[in-house]
Amino acid sequence: MNIVVCIKQVPDTFEVKIDPETKRIVREGVESIINPYDNYAIEEAVRLKERFGGTVTAISMGPPQAEKALRDAIAMGVDDGVLLCDMKFAGSDTLATSYILSCGIKKIGNFDVIVCGRETLDGSTGQVGPEIAHHLNIPYVTYVSKIKNISSGVMECVRLMEDHYEELKVHLPVLITVVKEINQPRIPSLKGMLKAKKAQINIWKSDNIEGEISSYGQDGSPTRVVDVWTEHMKKEGRKVEGETDKLVEELATELKKLGVL
Amino acid sequence: MAIRIIYEKCTLCRQCIDVCPFGAIEIKDDKLFINENCNLCGLCVKTCPEDALIKEEKTISAVDISQYKGIWFFAESRDGKLCPVALEMLNAALKLKKDLGEEVAGVLIGNNVKCLADELKTRGADRVYVIDDPLLEHFKEEPYAIAMAQLITKHKPNIVIAAATMMGRAFIPSVAARIKTGLTADCTDVSIDPETKLLVQTRPTFGGNLMARIICKNHRPQMATIRPKMFDEVPEIEDSPLEIILEQFNKNDLQDRVILLGKEKIENIIDLQEAEVIVSGGRGVKEPKNFAMIKELADLLGGAVGASRAAVDSGWIPYPHQVGQTGKTVKPKIYIACGISGAIQHLAGMQTSDYIIAINKDPDAPIFRVANLGIVGDIFEVIPALIKRIKENKKC
Ligand SMILES: Cc1cc2nc3c(=O)[nH]c(=O)nc-3n(C[C@H](O)[C@H](O)[C@H](O)COP(=O)(O)OP(=O)(O)OC[C@H]3O[C@@H](n4cnc5c(N)ncnc54)[C@H](O)[C@@H]3O)c2cc1C
Ligand SMILES: Nc1ncnc2c1ncn2[C@@H]1O[C@H](COP(=O)(O)O)[C@@H](O)[C@H]1O
Known about the structure:
Number of helices of chain B: 9
CATH class of the largest domain in chain B: Alpha Beta
Radius of gyration of chain B: 24 Å
Strand order of the largest sheet of chain A: 11-10-9-12-8-1-6-7-13
CATH topology of chain A: Rossmann fold
Bound molecules: flavin-adenine dinucleotide, adenosine monophosphate
Number of helices of chain A: 6
Oligomer: heterodimer
Mean pLDDT of chain B: 92
Helix content of chain A: 25-40%
Order of helices and strands of chain A: EEEEEHEHEHEHEEEEHEEEH
Strand content of chain B: 25-35%
CATH class of chain A: Alpha Beta
Largest interface: A-B, 91 and 104 residues
Number of strands of chain A: 15
Largest sheet of chain B: 7 strands, parallel
Helix content of chain B: 10-25%
Shape of chain A: globular
Strand order of the largest sheet of chain B: 11-15-10-5-8-9-16
CATH superfamily of chain A: HUPs
Distance between the termini of chain B: 72 Å
CATH topology of the largest domain in chain B: Rossmann fold
Structural class of chain A: alpha/beta
C-alpha cells in the first residue's frame, strides 16, 4: 500500500510572544517545528505501513529549511521525503497550496491513502486536506479518530464529530484528516535518526511537477491578506488584591449584582 | 506577484526583518532578500520608514463578478433540527445586507428539512433554498459539497458564509475548491468595505498571535466560515415574508464513495456553548481531583465547567471542556477563569463573554487584561471560602 502524508513546517507559535511595548511579534528563539497535528498524521501513516505493508512518503511545500521537517518524519519511520520548493509557490493560499500539493502527490503516483493533519498551527484553516482531495478527485473523511481496518480496497474508520462518533466505510484511494485522539506519536529511534541524517530528500521545483503555473503562488490564490495587526487588548476592568476575606466579599457582591446568587 | 524592494531607498535598517512574523526577510550580500516564507501579509510594507517596499498586485479577473448577487448563509441542521448557529449566520448575513443592500438567502441541505425553513420565516431572511433528498439524510462531505456547489453555480451568490463548526469546516473547503474560489476559515468578524463593497474577513492567524483582514477580490462567491458565538442569534421580528424555493439535487456528479455504517452518541456531552455561567480551571488547578472544587462552584452558580488546554492536555479533564482556539468558543453571561494565565489561544475562545472574572495569584497574568473583575489570589483559598459563603447564604 502506498501512503502519502502531508506535513508542514511551522514556527512554534507556542513560544511566540508579543512585545507589550511595540506590539510586535518577538521571533527570537522561536524554533521551526513539524506542525504538531501533523505528527499524528505521520504516526498513523507509519502505523498503516506496519499493519498493512507498503511505503510512506512525506510531502511538504515550503522553503528550503522545511527539509528538516521531512528528515524528522523519516526519523519517525517515513521512507521518503519530497519537498516542493520554488519561489513561484510563495504566497499561496489554501487553494493554491492544495493544488501544488496535489500535483506533487500525482507525481509520487499510485497512492492509496493520503493522511493530513487536522489543521496547522500557523494557518489553522483545516482547508488544505479537503481541497487536495478535490484536486485529486478522491473521497475524503475529516476528523478521523481510528482506522479499524483496510482490506480489498476499502477502509473502515471512525471519525469524531461535535457530539457523536461515526463509523464509515470508504473506497481507496482516500484522503483523511486526523485528530489527536487517533494515536500517540512515537519518539524517533536512534536508528531512525541515523537514517534521517543520511536520507536523500527529493526537492521538486515548479518545472518538476505538471501543473498550471497560473494556479501556483499568489496568482493562483483568490484570497489576499490586506492587513495584519496584533490585537491591542483593552483593560477596562478592575483588579482587587488583599486578604482572602476581602476577595471573597468582592466576588460575592459582584455575583449577586450579576444575578446568579 | 510579490513584495518588491526598491534597493535605492533601502537603508538596511532591519526594521522589516524584525517585524516579519514569517522570518521571510534576510540580508544576503548586503542586500535585502525576500525568501519563500513570504506570506505577502504586508507588515513590512507598513513598517518600512523609507517606503522601500511595495506590494505588487496583478489583477486577474477570473469571473464576471457583476453577475454575482446576494448574501447566502448555510442553515446548518443536525438530526432534523435547525442548529442555533444557523441563526447566528443569518444575523451576520443581515449585518452585511445593511451595508451591501443585497438580499439574504439561506441554504438548507438534508432529508425532510423543508419544514425547518419555517423557523427562518420570522427572522428576516428574504429567501431560503432547500435541497431535500434521501441521499442527504446524513452529513457526508461529498454529497453536501456537491449539493451546495450546484446551487452556487446555478444562482451565483456574491457572498456565502457558513459556521465554522465541524460540519462547516469539513465540507465548505470542498465547495470552494469545486467553484475555484477563495475561502477564509474561522473568521471572527465579517463586514463590507464601504468603498470597494468587498467582503472584509477578519480572522486570527499565526497561532492566534496576529489578526488578519482578508479579501477575495476577483473570484466569486466570496466565501468564509465564521466561528460560532461571534454573532448573536438573530431575534424574531414581525412577520417577514420568506420565499421558500425547492431545488433538485442533481446526482449525476455524485460518486458517493463514503458509506455510513453507524453513529454513536457521546454520552454526557457538556453543552458549554449554551451555558450562562462557565467556571474554568487551568494549570493552576494542579491535580485532577481539584476539579471537584471547580465543579462545585459551577454547580452552585448553575453553570458548566470549562478548562484551558493545559488542563486538558494534562489529562485532568476531557477535551469537550476545552475553551479556546482549538476548543470551544463560548460567550456566557459570566466566565470565571481559575488558575488560567490567559494565553492568546485561550482568550480567543472566551474574550467576548459578557462578564469575565479571573482568579489568579500572579498579578501580571495576561488574563487580567480582559477581566472585568480580577481577583489576585490563590484559588485554593479563595474558591473554598467562596463556596462556603454561598452555601451559608443559601441556608438562611
Ligand atoms: C495553536 C494553539 C492552539 C491552542 N489552543 C488552545 C485552546 O483552545 N485553549 C487553551 O486554553 N489553550 C490553547 N493553547 C495553549 C495556550 O497557548 C496555553 O498554553 C494554555 O492556555 C495555558 O493554560 P493555562 O492558562 O491553564 O496554564 P498556564 O499558562 O501555565 O497558567 C497557569 C496560571 O495559573 C496561575 N496559578 C497557579 N497556581 C495558582 C493558584 N494556586 N491560585 C491562583 N492561580 C494560580 C498561574 O499564575 C498561571 O497564570 C493553544 C496553543 C496553540 C499554540
Ligand atoms: N505547505 C504544506 N505542505 C504540506 N502539507 C500541508 C501544507 N499546508 C497544509 N498542509 C496539510 O494540510 C493540513 C491542514 O492545513 P491548514 O489547512 O493550513 O490548516 C495540515 O495539517 C497538513 O497535513
